[in-house]
Amino acid sequence: MTDPLPTMMDPVPTPTTCSRDREGEACLSAGERPLVPRLLPIAAPLLWFVAGGGLLLLGLWLPIDAAAQSAPTAAATDTLRLRTTDAVRLAVRNNRIIENAYLNRRADRYDRRTAMDKFVPDLTLSTDATVDDLFQNEGPTPRIEQRERSLNAGVTLSTLLPTGTRLSVGYDGRGDRTTVDGASASALPDSLTDPIGYRQSVQVRVEQPLLQDFGWGVNQASLRIARLEDAASRLDLQSALIDVVTQTVLRVRRLIQAREQQVIARTSLRRARRLLRRNRRLVEAGRLARLDLVQGQAQVSQQELRLEESRNQIHTARLDLLEILDLDENVVIDPVDILIVPEVSLDEDSVLAAAFAQRPDLQRAQHAVTIARENRRLADDQSQWDVRLVGSYTRQLQDDQLQVPFAEDPFSVNGGWSVGLSVDRTLGNPRREARRAQSRLAARTAQNRLREQRQQIEIAVRTQVNTVRQRRRQLTLAREVRRLSAEKLAVEEKKLQKGHSSSFQVVSFQNDLVRARQREVQAKIAYLDALTRLDQITGATLRTWNVQIEPIP
Q1: Which residues pair with 118 in a beta bridge?
Q2: Which helix (H) or strand (E) holds 82?
Q3: How do the domains of the chain map onto residue ranges?
C-alpha cells in the first residue's frame, strides 16, 4: 500500500528541452512563453526580414570562421532530472571514496598473491660462460698459451607440497674446451692440445619437516589467511558502498524536502496575497478595519520570508548532493521522485537475525577472529624445533678427457643417494616468545571485539526498529493534524466572507495549516530516513538499491 505526498498547488511548470546521455536525462531550460503570443502572426514576417538582412550584412563584413569564433556562447544552466536510483548509480560511479576503496582492494590483491601462490612450482633457469687465457714461460724460454672456455647451463624445478614437503629436481650440464698454443705445442698430442670435456648431472632432493612447518594445517594457514584478508577487503568495500549509498539517498531526500517546503511557501504566499486583496476591498468598502489590512500585509511579508528561506534550503541541499555525486556546482538537480510511504511490518527477532547475517562489519570481525587463530597457530609452530629429514639422489655422466687424456674409455657414470637428519634450534630467542604471546593476546582481543560488535548491533537494531515505529505514528498524527487544519481554515474563510470572523483569525489558521503541512513533510521524510537507516544497520542497503560490487581482476 502506497501513500503519496499530498498535492499542494504546484507552480506552473517551465517548458524544458531534454536530451539523454549515459549519465541520465539532462534537461535545459527552454525559457518562458512570450507575454503576447497573439502578436506573433503579425510580427513573424517582419522578424524574418530583419534577421535575414542582419545575417546578409554579417556575412559581407566577417568571414565565416571569424564570425563563428566571435559569437558569444549562450549561458544555459544544466538541469539534471534524476530519480533516487539514478543518484545512487552516479554516486557509486563517481564518488572518490568508492574509487579509492576499489584501488586499495586491487593493491591488496597484489600483496596477497604471493601467499596464494605458495604451492605453485618454481622453475629456475641458469647459465654462464667463461673464457680464461693463461700463459707460461714469459721470457727467453718458449712461450706456451693455454685458453680455457666453458659453458654451464642448468634448470631446477622446485615445489612445496601442502604437507610441508619441499621437492626439487635439477639438471646441470657443463662443457669445457682447452686449447694450447706455443712453441712446444707441436710436440704434444692432439688430445692434449685441443681437449673437449663435458658432464651432466641430475639431482632429486626431498626435504620433509618433522616438527616445525609439518602438516597440512600449518602450511595451509598462510593461504587461509590470504583468502580471509581478501574477503575482509571485499567487506570493507561493501561497508564503504553502504555508507555512500545511504548518504546519497538521505541527501536526495533533503533536496526533495526543501522543494516541498518551497511548494508550501508558495501556496501560502498566494493564499496570503489573496486574503490581502480581499481585505483591501473590504477596507475600501468600510466593512473591515484597517488593522486587518496591516495584519494581511504582515502575513504576506512573513510568507515571502519563508519562501526565501526555502530557496536557501534548496541551494544548500543541492550543493550537498552535488558533493557526494562529484558533479559541477553549476548543475541544477531536479529530483523527480514522488515520496511514497511503504507499509512495512517489522519483527525485531527477524530483523536482528538478518543483521547478524548481512552486516559486513560483523563478518569482518568474524574473519578477524579466524585470522588471529591462524596467526597463533603459526606462532606456536615457529616455537618448535626445526627437525628435517633430507634425502637426495644424484646421477652424473662425465667425459674425463680433460683429466685422463690417454684413457681408452674417457666416459664415466657416477651417482648415489643420501639420507640425513637436520636439527636446528636457536636458544634464548625472546622475539619468538614475544610473538607467541602477542598472537594469543590478539586472538582474545579479536574474540572480545566480536562479542562487543554483536551486542552493539543488537542494541542498534532494536533501537532503530522502535524509531521506525515511532516515525510511523508521528506521520499518521501529522496527516490528521494537516487535514483538520485545512478544514478549520476553510470554515473560517467562509465565516470571514459572511462577516462572522476576523482577518486575524484567518491568518492564524493559515499559519496553523502551513505548520501542519511542514510537519507532515518532515514526518514523511523522517519515516523514510528511518527505514533507510534500518537498511544500513542491517546491511541490506545494497540489496534494496540493487548495487552490485564489481569483481576485482
Answers
A1: none
A2: strand 78-82
A3: 78-106+226-365+445-544, 120-160+165-212+389-424
Residue 203 C-alpha from the chain's centroid: 51
In this structure, the number of other CB atoms found within 10 A of the CB of residue 115 comes to: 16
Spatial CA neighbour of 513 closest among 270, 257, 258: 270
Residue written as grid cell 636446528: 424
Residue 528 CB contacts under 8 Å (≥ 6 apart), including other chains? 253, 339, 341
**Which tens digits make up the pLDDT trace of 492-520?**
888 877 777 777 787 788 888 888 988 99
Q: Round to whole Å and give the CA distance between 413 and 405.
A: 17
C-alpha cell at 270: 498566494
Closest Cα partner for 128 from 148, 150, 152? 152
Class of domain 78-106+226-365+445-544: mainly alpha
Please tell me the pTM assigned to this model: 0.69
d(CA 260, CA 162): 65
CB 265 within 8 A of CB 303: yes
Tell the residue number behind the cell numbers 614475544, with chain if given: 434
Backbone φ and ψ of 355, nearest 5°:
-65, -40
pLDDT, tens only, 199-238: 888 999 999 999 888 888 888 888 888 888 888 888 988 9
Helical (H) or strand (E) element with 387: strand 386-399
- Quick: pLDDT tens for 138-158: 555 555 666 777 888 899 999
Q: % helix / strand / coil in the chain, to the nearest 5?
A: 60, 20, 20
First to last CA, the chain: 43
Enclosing H/E stretch for 58: helix 40-61
Question: Using an 8 Å Cβ cutoff, are 170 and 152 in contact?
Answer: no
Which grid cell is 130? 667463461
Alpha-carbon torsion, ordered 313, 315, 321, 325, to 10 deg: 180
